Amino acid sequence: MIDTTFMKKSFVAFLVSSLVCAVSVTGIENKQTPLVLVQEELNSFQQPEAEPITSGPDLRMIEWGQLNFISTTDTHGWLAGHLLQPSYAADWGDYASFIEHIRAEADERGVDVIVVDDGDQHDGNGLSDATFPNGAISQQILMMAPIDLMSIGNHELYNCDVTQQTYDIVAPHFDGRYLTANVEIRLKNGKWVHIGKRSYRFKTKNLGIDIMSFGFLFDFKLNCDNSRVSDVETVVQQAWFQSAIREEGIDMFIVFGHFPIRFWPEMWAIHKAIRAVHPHIPIQFFGGHSHVRDFAVLDSRATALQAGRFLETIGWLSIDGLDFSKEESDPAYAKPLKYSRRYIDFNPYSLAYHAKKTIGEAGTFGTTLGNSISKIIETERENLNLTFLYGCVPRDYLLEKAKYPGPNSLLSLLEDEVLKNLVGETKEKTEVARMVFVNSGCMRYDMYKGIFTLDSGYIVSPFENEWLYLHAVPYHLAEKILDRLNALDYIFMELTTPISRTMLVRQQNLGDTFDINVMDAYTASLVSSTSSDGLSKQDLMTTGYVTIDDYGMDGDDTPHKPFPLYYLPNAIAAKDKFPVDGSNPEVIDVVFVEFLKPFIIQALYDLDKSIPKEAWDVKVYGGISVKELIKAYVRGWGMECLR
Questions:
Q1: Which of 10, 186, 376, 422 is the 20 to 30 Å CA partner of 631?
Q2: For 14, how many CA atoms within 13 A lie in the half-sphere containing its CB?
Q3: What sign does the CA torsion over 101, 107, 109, 113 have?
Q4: What is the pLDDT of residues 35-44, one digit of tens each?
Q5: Sign of the C-alpha dihedral, residues 309, 290, 560, 535?
Q6: How many whole angstroms separate alpha carbon 211 and alpha carbon 13?
Q7: What contacts 331, CB < 8 A, 6 or more positions away?
Q8: What Å distances lie between residue 388 and 381, 452, 458, CA to CA?
Q9: Distance between CA atoms of 6 and 427, rounded to whole angstroms?
């Protein structure tokens, strides 16, 4: 725990104003009202819509050390939890209760605990996305949890209003502990300043460990023009950083932020820069962005933890063997440290289990703070109309957990049914034979059997998109575009640095591995042991993440039957308005989301280099987004789940 005065104050977030929205189906009316904690015991251990958990398996307990960490990353607005997935159905109030209990136990043990968040808090859930600006309510709720250190993610930089919100509201709340060593914002007077602080030095509450901390974002280039991101490799050579790592009396470094801890170079550049000055000082990294659970060993006194995504799991790390009585130059100082990590399933049972509390009406888990946050989440979801029902989904439609093509594949549903309902800005466009292309990354999450609400629409596909098209493309070229897109060795996702297919598939479900051959065999066994239709409902109740990291396969707190892992195509395409006799037209319209424009043009050039790229006349097609197409389609399923 960081011993700072902020813990002695009333949380600013409890009283600051928030946009509470009165929502209709077509729009949002913003009203300024404060979010205020309800000072009473509420026993709201899950949101009312959440699938209940009444019991659970024996778990792998967390191990305590001298210095302990709780970590989240890539929460993307999932503060209400996963309402149709019991394994992840805790909410942000439960998380606050967990932190409070862990802090109390740390004090009893005479050790320290530090709570870290690594950014990407927007885009992916109605609680964050149904307001203007995005995050107007969710960020206020997020700040109610007693988090020590926070960094920025790329999703705080796509939209200028969100970036300004981060600078104006979020960073000041953390009073110097919101760290953005390489991210700046341009003020109205034209001056560039860091959104948060570049570094933060503090001593821990119980052991007095003197820590220098830094927060970094990966080398991101798609930010809005009111922000700029400096390359990590450049920043660590700057005078301020070199001076900071040379300050006297530092016991260890914490480097956290929004960067993957495997394959990408940013973390290693920071590690190299610190090790050039301090060969053996402890360094603890925390990363994010690639949506995985992982633990990596950099050397015997430096490791990295990545906690997962969407509040499916939170990370726990403990460090033992710290001894600061010796000088760094003493050979005895450099002994290896002892580490322990857990990936904790985000449900009330798991959180209470590790906090040594009970759940239920007479339970001891929910604190006044946590229960009040849960009630605020429930109220704000109602105010935002996130429970508005579009229809009932008859079966589970999954992404990487289901074989594509197949009856359980969400991409197959999109390709076979949903995309054909796209209507261009004129009826004549829609009646022409066409292929409609989307990248698989436009789908963010699985669609589960049961109710499909306004919130579900943000969850399954949170992105807005514009439709473009090429008119009268020769079919002999158009039919080969998809193969070209799917032959590329990178994935069309929101990740802004190309990731090879092999790299991603090894991280999506299973972290990484110390032995690639073991990983390949393991992945193959998962796929071969699962039916071609994907997982049954019972499978989904018992399966979960099985993480392989540098310490092996025992990091997950909950023993799971592992998800199968299927390759997803880079893109899919729906054929529409083709001749009923099965013949192919001579020319068709090629319709695609704006994101695919450079890839479509490149594919056509590769197929026929006699046609220069600039000769292809790309025009606006019109029509509603993928997200809205899905909502409209779900309406056709009716309301059977309510009967």
A1: 376
A2: 12
A3: positive
A4: 544 444 344 4
A5: positive
A6: 26
A7: none
A8: 10, 8, 12
A9: 60
d(CA 206, CA 453): 46
What contacts 242, CB < 8 A, 6 or more positions away? 236, 273, 277
155 phi/psi in degrees, rounded to 5: -75, -5
CA-CA distances (angstroms) from residue 45 to 81, 382, 456?
11, 17, 21
Instruction: Check residue 87 and report its DSSP letter.
Output: G
Q: Which among 95, 86, 93 is positioned nearest to 116, based on CA atoms? A: 95
Does residue 358 sit in the same domain as residue 378?
A: yes
Give CA–CA dist 315/306, Å, rounded: 7
Please check whether residues 416 and 350 belong to one and the same domain.
no
Cis omega (within 30 of 0) on the bond before 336? no
In a domain, 555, yes or no: no
354-376 burial, b at 16+ Cβ within 10 Å, e below that, comes to bbebebeeeeebbbbbbbbbbbb
Question: What's the first-to-final CA gap in the chain, in angstroms?
Answer: 50
Same domain? For 320 and 347 the reply is: yes
List alpha helices for 290-365, DSSP H.
348-355
- Asked whether residue 169 falls in the same domain as residue 87, the answer is yes
Dump pLDDT digits (tens) for 464-506: 899 999 999 999 999 999 999 999 875 444 433 334 433 333 3
Domain that holds residue 317: 5-383
Query: And the tokens for 276?
Result: 């050039």
Q: Is 94 helix (H, G, I), strand (E, B) or coil?
A: helix
The CATH number given to whatever domain includes residue 207 is 3.60.21.10
Buried b (16+ CB within 10 A) or exposed e, 213-232: bbbbbbbbeebbebbbbeeb
d(CA 197, CA 151): 10
Q: 151 and 257 in contact (C-beta within 8 Å)?
A: yes
Residues 265 and 360 in one domain: yes
611 within 8 A of 604, measured Cβ to Cβ: yes
Span 283-335, pLDDT tens digits? 999 999 999 999 999 999 999 999 999 999 999 999 999 999 988 889 889 99
Q: Residue 585 and residue 603: Cα distance in Å, rounded?
A: 20
Q: Which of 343, 400, 411, 393 has its CA nearest to residue 530?
A: 400
